[in-house]
Prior knowledge:
By secondary structure, this protein is mainly alpha-helical.
Amino acid sequence: xxxxxxxxxxxxxxxxxxxxxxxxxxxxxxxxxxxxxxxxxxxxxxxxxxxxxxxxxxxxxxxxxxxxxxxxxxxxxxxxxxxxxxxxxxxxxxxxxxxxxxxxxxxxxxxxxxxxxxxxxxxxxxxxxxxxxxxxxxxxxxxxxxxxxxxxxxxxxxxxxxxxxxxxxxxxxxxxxxxxxxxxxxxxxxxxxxxxxxxxxxxxxxxxxxxxxxxxxxxxxxxxxxxxxxxxxxxxxxxxxxxxxxxxxxxxxxxxxxxxxxxxxxxxxxxxxxxxxxxxxxxxxxxxxxxxxxxxxxxxxxxxxxxxxxxxxxxxxxxxxxxxxxxxxxxxxxxxxxxxxxxxxxxxxxxxxxxxxxxxxxxxxxxxxxxxxxxxxxxxxxxxxxxxxxxxxxxxxxxxxxxxxxxxxxxxxxxxxxxxxxxxxxxxxxxxxxxxxxxxxxxxxxxxxxxxxxxxxxxxxxxxxxxxxxxxxxxxxxxxxxxxxx
Length: 486
């Protein structure tokens, strides 16, 4: 009789399993689609974009004349004073009122929508803004008597990869806020602070005023990074949002303008990529340099580094030490630097002197005090262990003394046995007796031992016979289970 594999509804068990699998797959696809829809709705900002208003607002911020020029001059003076006084709140206030963002957004937008006229206006106004800002900052620092190289000024002379990222993501936030219906003013203010366009220009003026052109070049490089990547972020966002390209009636002119815009976009991208690569490599070298100093020199108590001078362009690191530096130490440092990939090809220039600075001696003294305290702590711990071991040793000695204690002779019938032994064995000169501890390394036993001394020396065989006779006789007298003869 065949087994019926059909269920009451007329479906086999395999069909039910297959239906369950399909249902699970359907639920999984539905969950994935729901998640994708949620993320798409969460991150999509295209439906909230006002294209016409965005272009109008950006174009309105491009012109630079009248009140805008005076606002820029005032903001530059405020930022310069704040940088000179090392006051971050004053610098932030200057960045909030600065009108520098307008032409930069205009450059990015005009390239994205193929608007050559707006691009020309943006570049002209941007150039005028930059020149006026640098002249204002130079005038302030040239006339102001206190020319202090504050940390806020020096921080703008050496850009790194973080400045690139800040500028790019700041530009993204700014243009996204601009494209939203109802511009988010707080985002614009925040980006103005984060990207920090004003302080680099002030630092350029400071470097020119005091004759340190490397400061001016470094700060101008930082300002260029911020400008390029803000414009690049604007270009990318407007392209993603598919802002309409500007059309021209004359097809030849349209083609020419499209080529000019494309060429300009490529020109913007080249320094952007170059800047990113340069700053990335610079950051890597600086990171390896800092690790090399920290791990190979600062952690060595025998080295007293007075002044390091890295030169990333010439690929050299000058190290000035207090105290004499041996050839072995130089060779060791030259070998250790090879472990740091980004500075492995740098040349180490090591200089030492016989005299140690007071600061280095003080640091060495502090290290020795810390080491002495550590040794004293360890010594106290060892003394405690020694005292504990002494107590244990005394206890063991007491136990050993108890175990080795020989049974007094007067407890045994030693006198009578000795006299009888003399009678029975005339050749016996002396007879000793004792109990000895004997161990097989698993347990300890107490064994009775006799020590006979004979008057006459005989052969080994005869000596063995008389020792055997003596042992058997005394064993019977002492009633001992085991008796040894020595």
